[in-house]
Amino acid sequence: MQLSVTSLACAVRQMAGPSSIHSLPTEQYNQDVVSLGMHAGVTAMDALECLRNETAMVLLAAAQAVDLRGGPARLGSGSRRVHAAVRQLARFQDRDRSMEHEVAAVSVKIAAGEVLTGALPTAAGGVSLPESQPGQTRAQQGQRAQAPG
Q1: Burial classification of residue 36, based on how many CB atoms lie within 10 Å of its CB (0-12 exposed, 13-18 middle, 19 or more buried)
Q2: Using one digit for the tens of pLDDT, what is the confidence trace for 19-73?
């Protein structure tokens, strides 16, 4: 998995370049500034998929490390919940085997926001992430979080 994580990190770095460097003149040089919004959006979605898969691999490796070093009893409560979420999808690796299905399953749970569910404290003084709605900007999410009521 280490090689895959490194490869995905490299791909994300490559995709992080600005789309504006790919602009080409169109309409016989009449329009030399072309909107690359669609290109930037598709590239961002591809980068997020790579990052989710990379994160899934790191979480699988971390769960394996935890199990090899004494188990989840030595973890804090949030880390223990993340470990449990990963272990619901992937068993302890006691032999060399393909893990593509486990990586995909953890990646899906990350995309759904289910891996960190309950891992972050939300009591007084704790950290809470605002719920996002499809199509909302961060500013809109912040306004909703600050709205009275």
Answers
A1: middle
A2: 877 777 767 766 655 677 888 889 999 999 999 999 999 999 999 999 999 888 8
5 Cα distance to chain centroid:
13
What CATH architecture applies to the domain 2-22+32-146?
Up-down Bundle (1.20)
Entry pTM:
0.71
Give the number of other Cβ atoms within 10 Å of residue 50's Cβ: 19
Taking the C-alpha atoms of residue 16 and residue 13, their distance in angstroms, rounded to an integer, is 5
Domain ranges for the chain = 2-22+32-146
Q: Which of 56, 145, 72 is nearest to 108 (CA)?
A: 56
What DSSP assignment string belongs to the chain?
A: -HHHHHHHHHHHHHHTS-GGGG---BTTTTB-----HHHHHHHHHHHHHHHHHHHHHHHHHHHHHHHHTT-GGGS-HHHHHHHHHHHHHS----S----HHHHHHHHHHHHTT-SSTTTS--STT---PPP--TT--HHHHHHHHHS--
